[in-house]
Specification:
This protein has 239 residues and is α/β, with parallel strands linked by helices. The protein contains five helices and twelve strands. Strand 8 and strand 9 form a beta hairpin.
């Protein structure tokens, strides 16, 4: 099994609940200008309250996930991989996965199954704060480079691709398709960019305990199409 890492990428929330992503500050600037146009100090207050709410939900979700035993997490990943995926995976379909961080559910069993079915795999690379992820083609056994904070990624010369299916990590989700990530906004930016170009499927991978009744959302959040847990497959395409 590939090793896991627990390193924050640029822009991921700090322990004080603030974020360093350039995109985050651009979003704050947009909201501030909107509040000026609407004369809404209340809007700015609502945005700050939303950020604090997300930060607290993020910390609680991390604690719940960390509490799961390692062997239980391994079994959950294998259960998800064994289930039929309700998406067409024809030969050449590009599927982007990710290398799991610490207690994240391991996507590698599912990635291997999809590759055996003919999918071409890709992995993300961070190219800068406030920028979408770059997806680079990757095959089992190929050498890998140490990316931002030592997270393994394809070699820089690996071709960039545009996935048809994205496997998306998360800390929490709800049945409206909203998710809470680590606060940098990389996947929101990436999903939005790809959806502007072609139809894609954004598939969240999670443990059932990561589900919330409601995830606070903003216009900048990109919703998921499916969530796969060890208990069920949640189809959100008509949510």
């Amino acid at each position: 099994m590939a090793p896991t890492y627990f390193r924050r990428e640029p822009g991921i929330e700090r322990s004080d609940g603030r974020r360093g992503s350039a995109q985050f500050w651009r979003d704050k600037a947009r909201i501030y200008l909107l509040s000026l146009r609407r004369g809404g100090r209340a809007i700015r207050n609502d945005v700050d309250a939303l950020s604090l709410e997300k930060a607290e939900l993020r910390r609680a979700a991390q604690a719940r996930r960390d509490a799961l035993p390692a062997d239980w997490r391994k079994a959950a990943a294998e259960t998800i991989a064994a289930r039929e995926l309700p998406l067409a995976v024809a030969p050449g379909t590009i599927v982007s996965g990710f290398m799991p961080l610490k207690s994240e559910i391991n996507p590698l069993p599912l990635m291997r199954k999809l590759a055996d079915a003919g999918a071409s795999l890709a992995l993300p690379a961070v190219t800068g704060r406030g920028k979408p992820l770059v997806m680079r083609r990757w095959q089992w056994g190929e050498p890998m480079a140490a990316g931002v904070w030592g997270i393994r990624e394809p070699m820089p010369e690996a071709p960039e691709v545009e996935p048809d299916i994205l496997l998306v990590p998360l800390l929490a989700f709800d049945r409206s398709g909203h998710r809470i990530g680590y606060g940098a906004g990389y996947y929101d930016l990436t999903i939005a960019q790809l959806r502007a170009k072609k139809p894609i499927a954004a598939v969240g991978l999670a443990f059932a305990v990561q589900e919330l009744s409601r995830v606070p959302a903003t216009p900048f959040d990109a919703p998921l199409d499916l969530v796969l847990t060890e208990k069920e497959l949640i189809d959100l395409r008509n949510a």
